[in-house]
């Protein structure tokens, strides 16, 4: 029974089986063997194996069957060519022995032709794939457990290692830092699980210690199990990075150059506009001067002709009585005085344009000045039968130059009378509420000014009617001179008119001379009462902010127009705690102290206990540099326009204020 089962199994065995004697004759074969050689079982039995398998007349030079027959034991030949073009894995074992010799053998053959072909194809593919990977400019490596298993040539060349060296190194050896590796490892695991790949840019470590800017890619062999291994690719982008940096730098330079060119173009356009404006202004100035010369020549000839005419009558004795002679002389004198006024106007304009007109500001009593103006203009008003009302100011003092303020008021009142044929001319002064400004008003009921002419009436040589046949004389310089004089005294001049036929109002704004005793001399006593702060500015800008702070902190102060006035008081031992001053002032030829810095130098040498705050509106002074030169008097430099917080800090720094809570309440800390 067992023999039958074994025989049945052998006959149905899927691989070729055969039994051979010592001569190689096939004693038995199964169906798989018959299928392999393509013969019937009856034909196979009794045939030599080398005939039906190898198609030879004798055993080949090597035969595993002969090896078993002659030497005994089991022989396995994995790749024997059992038939032309067909390769099999062969196993030969002895079955029967007699007298120590093998009598029969069992021959098993498993054809592996396709496997060998596939293996050869795989080897060829591997060689081709390896050649392709080695030819790649990208570095490629295969990693298991963060150690290199395979590396291409580019990978080793990029990092400067031999391939054998890298195989003995951990992955951390090529990263710039352990922290970088940790960060990348966490990011890699997350990205590989979610997306199946991870790419990033980083710097790797070259063997020589330098940094290699690289683009790194990582992909898993098995997305579900990263332990199977990872493919690591690197691309050296150092040259690209340097080129990109150079490109960015070049781009930045081009942008800077473009911005510079744009700025230059804007400056050129601005200069062109300025030149065009200057050209138009020059043309307008030439036109105005031509009109001025035409009208002024008429104005000059009229008094000259009058003077010469009346002097000729006197020289020829063509007068009937001493009274008539006196009238001739008076008329000639009036014409000469008018001529002198015309010439003085022209000279004043020339001085103003050259910046050589000197102003000497002192406290002035407007009562005295108004009385003088009334006396000088009353006759002119009476001739035109106008009502001239000059109201008493009531002991108001202003800072100004007496001669120049008289010139301004005479011009304004004279114009009001000249351009008013009926009605009145009214003059009054008042302190502007909430300020330390005094306003002198000159109002008439005359011909008025068209709205479109208001803005040009202050221009030199400009008149509303510039023709030589205009009904009112004059050079057109009076308002220009008056406006400039008011500004030089720290004030301003404005003109208002509702329109033609509705009159005109002129207003002169001047600094109030605070602290003047109406019953005392305008200059005060020899040693005036001690004041906390002297404030000296060339004009009114900045006063409200400064005075608000000083009043709020209970500090008494006096106002001045020039630093020389402050120096004069300090020389007579009238010393405040602090001086607040401008840096630049109008030139006074006779002044000893002409600028804010000269005042600082004066205090440093003469009164080092007096502090000073200088307001620099041109950015000329450097506080750190000045400390090296002025070591005695405490000082601070502040920018214009004046602001409350910097002023409070300066007052505290100079010791004028002591309470820190003041600064805290005002948000200085």
Structure description:
This is histidine kinase. GO terms for molecular function: histidine phosphotransfer kinase activity; phosphorelay sensor kinase activity. The strands form five sheets. The protein has a five-stranded antiparallel beta sheet with strand order 2-1-5-4-3. A five-stranded antiparallel beta sheet has the order 7-6-10-9-8. With 669 residues, it is of the alpha+beta class. Helix 11 (322-354) packs across helix 14 (478-488) and helix 16 packs parallel to helix 17 (596-606). It has 20 helices and 22 strands. The protein is rod-shaped and about 195 Å long. The chain folds into four domains: 2-117, 2-Layer Sandwich (Beta-Lactamase), CATH 3.30.450.20; 119-241, Beta-Lactamase (2-Layer Sandwich), CATH 3.30.450; 358-511, Heat Shock Protein 90, CATH 3.30.565.10; 533-654, Response regulator (Rossmann fold, 3-Layer(aba) Sandwich), CATH 3.40.50. Strand 4 (86-98) and strand 5 form a beta hairpin.
The strand count comes to 22
Strand content: 15-25%
* The number of domains: 4
How large is the radius of gyration?
59 Å
Pfam families: HATPase_c, HisKA, PAS_4, PAS_9
Protein name: histidine kinase
GO molecular function, one term: histidine phosphotransfer kinase activity
EC number: 2.7.13.3
Structural topology:
Blueprint (H helix, E strand, L loop, with lengths): L1 H11 L4 E5 L4 E4 L1 H7 L3 H4 L4 H4 L11 H8 L3 E9 L2 E13 L2 E11 L1 H23 L3 E6 L2 E5 L1 H7 L3 H5 L10 H18 L2 E8 L5 E10 L9 E7 L1 H78 L6 H33 L7 E4 H18 L3 E4 L6 E4 L1 H17 L5 E8 L5 E8 L33 H11 L3 E5 L7 E8 L21 E4 L6 H10 L4 E4 L2 H9 L6 E5 L13 H11 L4 E6 L6 H7 L5 E5 L4 H10 L6 H6 L4
Parallel strand pairs: 12-14, 18-19, 18-20, 20-21, 21-22
Antiparallel strand pairs: 1-2, 1-5, 3-4, 4-5, 6-7, 6-10, 8-9, 9-10, 11-13, 14-15, 15-17, 16-17
Helix pairs in contact: 10-11, 11-14, 12-13, 13-14, 16-17
């Amino acid at each position: 029974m067992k023999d039958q089962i074994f025989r049945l199994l052998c006959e149905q065995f899927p691989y070729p089986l055969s039994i051979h004697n010592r001569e190689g004759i096939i004693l038995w074969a199964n169906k798989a063997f018959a299928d392999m050689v393509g013969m019937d079982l009856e034909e196979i039995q009794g045939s030599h194996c080398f005939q039906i398998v190898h198609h030879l007349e004798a055993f080949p030079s090597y035969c595993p069957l002969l090896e078993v027959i002659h030497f005994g034991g089991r022989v396995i030949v994995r790749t024997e060519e059992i038939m032309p073009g067909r390769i099999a894995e062969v196993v030969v074992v002895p079955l029967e022995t007699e007298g120590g010799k093998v009598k029969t053998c069992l021959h098993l053959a498993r054809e592996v032709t396709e496997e060998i072909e596939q293996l050869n194809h795989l080897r060829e593919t591997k060689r081709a794939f390896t050649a392709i990977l080695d030819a790649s400019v990208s570095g490629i490596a295969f990693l298991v457990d963060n150690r290199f298993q395979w590396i291409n040539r580019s990978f080793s060349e990029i990092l400067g290692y031999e391939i054998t060296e890298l195989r003995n190194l951990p992955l951390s050896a090529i990263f710039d830092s352990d922290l970088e590796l940790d960060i990348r490892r966490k990011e890699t695991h997350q990205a590989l699980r979610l997306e199946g790949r991870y790419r990033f840019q980083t710097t790797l470590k070259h063997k020589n210690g330098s940094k290699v800017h690289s683009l790194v890619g990582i992909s898993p062999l098995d997305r579900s199990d990263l332990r199977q291994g990872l493919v690591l690719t690197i691309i050296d982008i150092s040259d690209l990075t340097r080129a990109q940096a150079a490109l960015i730098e070049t781009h930045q330079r081009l942008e800077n150059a473009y911005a510079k060119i744009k700025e230059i173009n804007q400056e050129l356009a601005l200069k062109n506009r300025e030149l065009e404006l200057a050209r138009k202004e020059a043309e307008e100035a030439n036109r105005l001067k031509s009109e001025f010369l035409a009208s002024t020549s008429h104005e000059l000839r009229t008094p000259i002709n009058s003077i010469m005419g009346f002097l000729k009558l006197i020289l020829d004795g063509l007068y009937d009585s001493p009274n008539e002679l006196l009238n001739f002389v008076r008329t000639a004198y009036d014409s000469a005085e008018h001529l002198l006024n015309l010439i003085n106007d022209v000279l004043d304009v020339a001085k103003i344009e050259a910046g050589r007109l000197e102003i000497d500001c002192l406290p002035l009593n407007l009562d005295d000045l108004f009385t003088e103006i009334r006396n000088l203009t009353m006759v002119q008003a009476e001739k035109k039968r106008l009502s001239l009302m000059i109201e008493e100011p009531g002991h108001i003092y202003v800072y100004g130059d007496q001669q120049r303020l008289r010139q301004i008021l005479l011009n304004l009142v004279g114009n009001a009378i000249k351009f008013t044929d009926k009605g009145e001319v009214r003059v009054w002064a008042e302190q502007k509420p909430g300020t330390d400004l005094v306003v002198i008003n000159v109002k008439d009921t005359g011909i008025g000014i068209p709205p479109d002419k208001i803005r040009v009436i202050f221009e030199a040589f400009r008149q509303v009617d510039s023709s030589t046949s205009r009904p009112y004389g004059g050079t057109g310089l009076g308002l220009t001179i008056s406006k400039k004089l008011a500004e030089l005294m720290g004030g301003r001049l404005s003109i208002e008119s509702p329109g033609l036929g509705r009159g005109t109002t002129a207003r002169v704004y001047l600094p109030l001379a605070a602290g003047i005793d109406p019953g005392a001399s305008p200059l005060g006593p020899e040693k005036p009462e001690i004041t906390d702060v002297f404030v000296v500015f060339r004009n009114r800008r900045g006063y409200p902010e400064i005075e608000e702070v000083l009043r709020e902190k209970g500090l008494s102060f006096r106002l001045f127009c020039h630093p020389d006035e402050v120096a004069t008081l300090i020389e007579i031992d009238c010393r405040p705690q602090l001086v607040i001053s401008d840096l630049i002032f109008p030139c006074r030829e006779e002044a000893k102290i002409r600028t804010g810095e000269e005042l600082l130098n004066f205090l440093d040498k003469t009164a080092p206990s007096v502090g000073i705050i200088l307001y620099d509106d041109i950015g000329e002074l450097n506080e750190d540099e000045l400390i090296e030169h002025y070591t005695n008097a405490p000082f601070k430099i502040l920018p214009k326009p004046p602001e409350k917080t910097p002023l409070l800090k300066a007052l505290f720094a100079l010791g004028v204020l002591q309470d820190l809570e003041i600064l805290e309440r005002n948000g200085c800390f």
